[in-house]
Amino acid sequence: MGLGYIGLPTAIIAAKHGVQIIGVDINPQVVEKTNQGQLHIVEPGMQELLQEVITNGQLKASTTPEVSDAYFIVVPTPFKGGNHEPDISYVEAATRSVIPYLKEGDLYVIESTSPVGTTDKMAKLIFELRPELQDKIYIAYCPERVLPGNVIYELVHNDRVIGGMNEVSTEKAITFYRHFVQGTLHRTNCKTAEMCKLTENSSRDVQIAFANELSLICDKADINVWELINLANKHPRVNILQPGCGVGGHCIAVDPYFITAEFPMESKLIATAREINNYKSFWCAEKIQNAMLRFELEHHHKPVVAMMGLAFKPDIDDLREAPAKYITTRVMQSCNNADILVVEPNIKEHKVFKLTDYKEAYEQADIVVFLVAHTPFKSLPYNNSKIILDFCGIYKK
Ligand SMILES: NC(=O)c1ccc[n+]([C@@H]2O[C@H](COP(=O)([O-])OP(=O)(O)OC[C@H]3O[C@@H](n4cnc5c(N)ncnc54)[C@H](O)[C@@H]3O)[C@@H](O)[C@H]2O)c1
Predict the structure, then answer these.
(1) How far is CA 269 from the centre of its chain?
(2) 118 has which bridge partners?
């Protein structure tokens, strides 16, 4: 259920390993494209595999479920409202749509990143509507931790955490994942498995927040944060991450809220890390605006500003929740669209931003703002005649 960035590759890899798969998505265009053997997501190597499993009939896509032996819920779990409450309505809708097809001996697994207790909630819903299935089906939670761009390898080789509602459910789910996972399958209960996924991403968020906080302190203290972190990491038991212009993407910037919304009193560090990482983006925007004002006062004309990068991390084309996109938008709105050149070498065009080639933008700009450490930017020679705001360590020295 759900043929997106995670569900579709999972369906393809399982099909490739001999499992007969019906891929269900409520979006008819996704279903149509998939059945035509056309990959609707970007993932290296996946197009060829899709074509193969569609051609040999191992995978077919549909807008509605069919009777199966195992059901996997891989739909979005965003947050909603000012308090960042997790929105599990997609998980519930997908679950409701498979409930009529469930039969004795079936396996039901949630893979979507979910707040603690979601699997229990869905089990309750299933047994409310189908009480005769109580103790007759297997229910488990198995989170996904693949890195987009390396999905073919990671789906097969990563270790996975599998948490059943009871031990037999865990074993049943393990038997399924053994079809294609070569990594170790770790047994636990569903609540621990749910929390494990949230913990992994919150851990990253907290560690990045520490680096970002250091960058704010170092800016005030006039210390090179990159040099500082490099030196501190010479300690055998210290491993500080690199600061940047915030935290983006649809996982690390989202999942910690699934903990803070439910455990607000206890999750002080996790909540503060979210605030620090959000604040860092706001701070970067302020820094740019100040630099622009100072330039105008000194030169009596507005500067040309190059915003280098829009993606949420280096060398990808994914702009979801990207701090660089937020900062660029904020700066453009605050300066009446002065001469801002927007650069993102990993995409050809954007419906909001007019894109400029990175070398051309660097050449033309009075102020160059490095927002994302894309590899091509690192070959640009440092130019003393420009004001350079390097938020992502292009010129670490
Ligand atoms: N993308 C990642 O890198 C990643 C990594 C780990 C975990 N996750 C988690 O995996 C889950 C899925 O993420 P994604 O990136 O694949 O999302 P996505 O938005 O790419 O795809 C989700 C798909 O589900 C479909 N859908 C929505 N409601 C449906 C329903 N009721 N029935 C059938 N299909 C339905 C949508 O049309 C969409 O095609 C999320 O919980 C996410 O947090 C994502």
Answers:
(1) 21
(2) none
Asked whether residue 261 carries a pLDDT value surpassing 70, the answer given is yes
d(CA 207, CA 283): 19
Beta bridge partners of 23: 61
From the CA of 388, how far away is ligand 1's center (Å)? Answer: 39
- CATH architecture of the domain formed by 7-189: 3-Layer(aba) Sandwich (3.40)
Query: Which residue's alpha carbon is at the smallest distance from atom 20 of ligand 1?
Result: 4
Given a cut of 70, whether residue 337 has pLDDT beyond it is no
The architecture in CATH of the region 223-390 reads 3-Layer(aba) Sandwich (3.40)
Return the bridge partners of 189, or none: 164
Which sequence spans correspond to the domains of the chain? 7-189, 223-390
> pLDDT of 58-92, one tens digit each?
999 999 999 999 999 999 999 888 888 999 999 99
pLDDT of 250 strictly over 90: no
Residue 390's pLDDT is: 96
Question: Which atom of ligand 1 is nearest to 91's Cα?
Answer: 31
Tens of pLDDT, residue by residue over 115-135, are 999 999 999 999 999 999 999
Nearest CA to ligand 1 atom 31: 94
Same fold, 7-189 and 223-390: yes
How far is CA 109 from its chain centroid? 21
| CA separation for the pair 103, 11 (Å, rounded) | 21
Best residue for ligand 1 mutational test, from 25, 32, 251, 319 (most atoms within 8 Å of Cβ): 25
> Rounded to the nearest whole angstrom, what is the distance from the C-alpha of residue 348 to the centroid of ligand 1?
25
Q: Which of 16, 172, 197, 325 is catalytic?
A: 197
Under DSSP, is residue 322 helix (H, G, I), strand (E, B) or coil?
coil
318 lines ligand 1 (CB under 6 A): no
31 lines ligand 1 (CB under 6 A): no
| pLDDT at site 397 | 64
